[in-house]
Write a structure and sequence with these properties.
140 residues, mainly alpha, 5 helices, binds protoporphyrin IX containing FE
Length: 140
């Protein structure tokens, strides 16, 4: 069970953060070869597919993350590990909110989506820090 949960957590992290990196580093710069109309058609199609992938990754990260907290941290006294873990969870929740804001097709999020490149940079940077903290928690 423990290995299964660890695998689920890692698979979801790789898929979610890898997806953000792909959008930002590969897809967005490549869109420049298309005209504005083709660009928005392609981006819309990609966004529709990214929606279910990112929402699944978020649900799996939360479920397996809570399991991991219960398994490895619950009995630990408050200390450095808990502080780093708490910081990681807060960063993850902010990151999840940005991704949900970019992918939920509600008009309230139109202003966020208008600056999607900026928000993708913020989200990916946070993901990189979350992975750094996770590596530290595991081996530190
Ligand atoms: C963007 C979101 C997240 C990413 C990219 C992420 C990534 C990772 C990675 C790469 C590991 C190391 C796994 C290993 O070495 O086997 C890990 C471990 C862990 N994650 Fe996450 N995680 C995320 C969100 C969460 C959330 C929301 C929680 C809690 C609710 C959580 C709790 C944990 C715990 C408790 C561990 C075990 C740490 C240890 O080995 O001491 N994670 N995570």
């Amino acid at each position: 069970m423990t290995t299964l949960m660890q695998w689920i957590h890692l698979m979801a992290a790789v898929t979610g953060i890898g997806g953000l990196a792909f959008l930002l580093l590969i897809l967005m710069p490549s869109l420049r070869v298309l005209n504005p109309e083709q660009r928005s058609t392609l981006f819309q199609a990609v966004a529709n597919r990214f929606r279910w992938a990112s929402w699944s990754a978020i649900a799996l990260l939360l479920a397996s993350g809570i399991y991991n907290v219960r398994q490895y941290y619950w009995e630990l006294a408050w200390g450095r590990s808990w502080s780093f873990l708490t910081f990681k969870i807060i960063l993850s929740l902010v990151l999840f909110s940005i991704v949900l804001g970019l992918t939920i097709p509600w008009r309230v999020f139109d202003r966020l989506r208008a600056r999607r490149q900026t928000w993708l940079i913020v989200a990916l940077s946070m993901g990189v820090v979350v992975i750094l903290i996770s590596a530290y928690l595991r081996r530190g």
